[in-house]
Design a protein that fits this description.
The chain is mostly helical. The protein is built from four helices and no strands.
Length: about 80
């Protein structure tokens, strides 16, 4: 049995990650902003069973309603 995050949770995580990335939270002088970006990145990876943010975003989007089917090779991480 594989556990999957609820699509609404994934959508919120994707939106928050994109918002933080858009304002440059990874380079922000605020330790709080950098920590939040790290937390969201980690949660996306754990929620999707991936190890990097690009794979996590692809996997999360794939799990959203209305997502187009992708080749499994796009989602696998070696």
């Amino acid at each position: 049995m594989t556990l999957m995050a609820h699509p609404a949770v994934l959508r919120d995580l994707i939106d928050e990650y994109q918002a933080l990335a858009a304002v440059g939270a990874d380079k922000a002088s605020s330790a709080q902003a950098r920590q939040r970006l790290d937390d969201v990145t980690y949660t996306l990876c754990v929620s999707t069973g991936t190890r990097d943010i690009d794979a996590a975003l692809a996997a999360a989007r794939h799990q959203l309603p209305g997502a187009r089917p992708l080749a499994d090779s796009v989602l696998s991480s070696s």
